[in-house]
Specification:
This protein is of the alpha+beta class. The protein has five helices and four strands, in the order H-H-H-E-E-E-E-H-H. The protein is globular and about 55 Å long. The relative contact order is 0.11.
Length: 186
């Protein structure tokens, strides 16, 4: 192996680890309400819509959003990263998040669809979009209730069950009897 290949492989490994740390640091910053840390994770070019751009936009956005619930716990898993260039990547990461809202413990199961960019040697989120798989009270079984049950905030979530993936439908085609047996509830 030549030196150039080794340098590129090490850079890819270090980049992969740095990008994974973004998701972990994000979860920890959200749960500890560390607005400075949250805003530092986004690139200066990240668009937060009406809240602005970059670090200032992140700060405004998260100060508003985090005031909607008292406590939260974000658990990160299943991070998949695809490099689309030496300084850009995209990825998905699963998250189970619990939120205390008055007497309710709201459970969110979601997948983040992320874009990452490296600027001056540091990796940042270039964009982050959540796809909600389940939103409801942690004490209820998802199969027995609507998949979008955050009291008073149902309008805030577009729940997209795994069934919305084309591979889901293709997998169950021809297996309807098995699917029906698995989903029937007494």
């Amino acid at each position: 192996m030549d030196t150039k290949d080794l340098v590129e492989r090490i850079d890819r490994i270090e980049s992969h680890l740095a990008i994974q740390q973004l998701a972990f640091r994000y979860a920890r910053a959200i749960d500890s309400r560390n607005i400075a840390e949250i805003s530092s994770l986004f690139s200066s070019q990240t668009n937060f819509g009406e809240d602005g751009m970059g670090h200032a936009g992140a700060r405004t956005f998260y100060e508003r959003v985090l005031a909607d619930f008292y406590r939260s716990f974000h658990q990160i898993s299943g991070h998949v990263i695809e490099f689309t260039g030496s300084d850009v990547a995209k990825g998905t990461v699963y998250c189970r998040a619990e939120h205390e809202v008055g007497p309710n413990w709201i459970l969110n199961v979601m997948v983040y669809f992320d874009r990452y960019v490296r600027m001056e040697g540091t990796w940042y989120f270039a964009g982050r979009r959540a796809r909600y798989l389940y939103v409801g009270d942690a004490l209820q079984q998802p199969s027995s209730v609507d998949f979008n049950c955050w009291p008073g905030r149902e309008h805030a979530f577009k729940v997209e069950l795994p069934q919305s993936d084309p591979t889901w439908s293709a997998f169950w085609t021809g297996r309807e009897e098995v699917r029906d047996a698995l989903t029937s509830h007494p």
